[in-house]
Amino acid sequence: MIKVGDKVKFLNDVGGGVVTRFLNKNLVMVENYDGFEIPYPILQLLNTSDPELNVGSGSQAKQNIQTQIAPKIEIEESPGEIINGKNSPDFYFCFVPADSRNPLAADIKLYLVNDSNFTVLFRYSHINKDGFETVKNGTVQSNSRLLIESIVQNDLSELPEYGFQIIYFQKNENEWREAITKRFKVNPVKFYKETSFYPNQLFKKSAMVLQITPNIFSPEIDKLTEADFQKVVAEKNQEPVTEEIPQKRAAEIVEVDLHINELLDNSTGLSNSDILALQIEKLNRK
Q: Is the residue at 234 inside a domain?
């Protein structure tokens, strides 16, 4: 509590003075060291005559400062979903500009996209001459995406090499899967080209989509196809080869009537050379 005659200091300004009178319950007049009276909020005064009386006002001031701090906005992680046919481990590293026609007009957001029914544990790093710097790590649920960082035009002069380490799995499965490691070196020139960002099925906006891993199941399918092919070839090699004897065809006699009146309804005006040319053309067609 502050009363008339107390010596005070200003919390938010340099200086202080003596309380001379109350203007209302929240405001007092303070005579400063130069002899001038100035109005000042009580909550912004520190009582130097009796410091113990500052407990209430100090905590209140601290409370007022805390209320001015904006609450931190937490981005909720997508719970994920299971989609029929998404059993292939397809993971993507995507650059999504606010405006694909002018990518460098604003920031470019970088996403890790999990386009599969697997749950992903990841470590995302910048790789430079000094080693690895972990930028973000965590979990990406099935068929969802996660914003991992943003870049602006000034960052393009020193783009790092990007690195991913990924473990993926499905709940309640008993299969052990090898971890995936992938590194990307992106040429800064790409960000100056509109064609580097194109429509895709992952975002409503055009984006630069880099695949972290191709369909890991496809090599197994390719092996199976190759094995089946070799089996068919082996079976063909075991079949007896029968040589077909070509049969001679009887010569066919073709009769062609080359009279000009059979070739044309009206030959008026044609020279002998014209008629001969028509007859040769008719003969070549047979």
A: no
Cα 163 to Cα 262: distance, rounded to the nearest angstrom: 83
How far apart CA 195 and CA 71 sit, in angstroms, is: 40
User: Residue 175 domain-assigned?
Assistant: yes
Q: What is the pLDDT along the chain (286 residues), one digit of tens a residue?
A: 788 888 888 887 788 899 888 887 788 888 888 778 888 888 888 888 766 655 454 455 455 544 444 444 444 456 688 999 999 999 999 999 998 888 888 899 999 999 999 999 999 999 998 899 999 999 999 999 999 999 999 999 999 999 999 999 998 888 889 999 999 999 999 999 889 999 999 999 999 999 998 765 554 445 555 666 566 556 655 655 555 555 655 556 666 666 767 766 666 666 677 777 777 777 776 6
Instruction: Give me the CATH number covering residue 213.
Output: 2.60.40.1600
The position carrying tokens 């993507």 is 92
